[in-house]
Amino acid sequence: MKITDARVVVSSPGRNYVTLVIETEDGLTGVGDATLNGRELAVAAYLSEHLCPMLIGRDARRIEDTWQYFYKGAYWRRGPVAMTAIAAIDVALWDIKGKAAGMPVYELLGGAARDGVMVYGHASGSTLEALSADFQAHLDLGYKAIRAQAAVPGLDKTYGIAPADNIYEPASGNVPQEDRWETSAYLDFAPAMMRHLRDEFGYGVHLLHDVHHRLTPIEAGRLGAALEPYRPFWMEDPTPAEDQSAFRLLRSHTTTPVAVGEVFNSIWDCQQLITERLIDYIRTSVSHAGGITHLRRIFSLADLYGVRSGSHGAGDLSPVSLAAALHVDLSIPNFGIQEYMGHREPASKVFRTSYTFADGYMHPGDAPGLGVEFDEEAAAAYPFDPKYLPINRRLDGSVHDW
Ligand code: KDG
Ligand code: MG
């Protein structure tokens, strides 16, 4: 089953997506998501200039060999650009394998280990009242787990707050916007926000919160302890994870569960966090951590140490990524939860998906392969539109983690 074509399509149906399309001599087509928010063209060039020409003539059935060929063969290993490119190839090859077998990808991964995939949605508000209204709207839709973010009083703008008329999209402008940050105001506000939600909605729904890498390890320990009475499902990215051993300090101060890893690209980025049981959920995604092949390796390691999956699923990962994530989620033993933000329109005109949402759970569907049809003609109507994640500065003007 020789690969006859591999091409990259960059489009912006609601936001920028980089999509890899692989074709075989048998007439099968596979798709992979190669989107890296704000660095889209770097991955597009890595693929089209370097990897796509090497794919021509390779056997599409040899997924593991192809993964090793591009990972070990490059000499230069890891990093978000290379691992996102490899991920797109890997996912497209799983799509082709599923179509060739006439089976959904999850069947090839061992079959369904559960009936559905619990997902969490995003509720946010510029006031606590607005947050409550959005939270209630998510409950009405059937969500069993909801992430809560609200604007910190005294700061002009806080990450994670959706505009009134659309889902959250942090990227904007052809140079990054600049936000301001003040840790002490946040540390006082976040527990009050969680208390507000528990007072209003009780404890029958899973409550999540994303700290977005903004605290030092000891500040994160303080926040985790302050959140304990509100029993969060998790506290996400409490402190930057480049320093994995820093999580020992955090762990010694709180039992609030910790989720980390949406910016990781490989098993090596989370080896210590997992093997020392410093986190409870690993948030690596199928598109940024080397595809289905490598993500399964990470989740298998995590399973040995009682760590569950909690894959990143923001709207800047395309519907191809979400579909691939759902196939993995359905089939692994240590699934925890899946992020589900949905996609801005007109994404559904370009990506026709077969996954479903009902009562807080998703299912990837039973179409052969991933169950996503990518309409290249429709994509052509939405040209690339450069946009960047914000830069974050403290009140004194120094750059802080965003
Ligand atoms: O591209 C960055 C976004 O995906 C990120 O800011 C979203 O933190 C995020 C999340 O948890 O979804
Ligand atoms: Mg996050």
Quick overview of this protein structure:
The protein has 402 residues and is an alpha/beta fold. It has helices spanning 40-55, 63-71, 80-101, 105-108, 128-141, 183-201, 217-227, 246-251, 267-275, 291-304, 319-331, 347-350, 376-380, and strands at residues 3-11, 17-24, 29-33, 117-125, 145-150, 178-181, 206-210, 234-236, 258-260, 281-282, 308-309, 338-339, 351-353, 356-358, 361-363, 372-374, 391-394, 399-400.
Report on the architecture of this protein.
It contains 13 helices and 18 strands. By secondary structure, the chain is of the alpha/beta class. It folds into 2 domains: 3-103, 2-Layer Sandwich (Enolase-like, domain 1), CATH 3.30.390.10; 108-369, Enolase-like C-terminal domain (TIM Barrel, Alpha-Beta Barrel). The strands form 4 sheets. Strands 4, 5, 7, 8, 9, 10, 11, 12, 14 and 15 form a 10-stranded mixed β-sheet that branches. Strand 4 (117-125), helix 5 (128-141) and strand 5 form a beta-alpha-beta unit. Helix 3 (80-101) packs across helix 10, helix 5 crosses helix 6 (183-201) and helix 9 packs parallel to helix 10 (291-304). The model has no long low-confidence stretch (mean pLDDT 97). The chain binds 2-keto-3-deoxygluconate and magnesium ion.
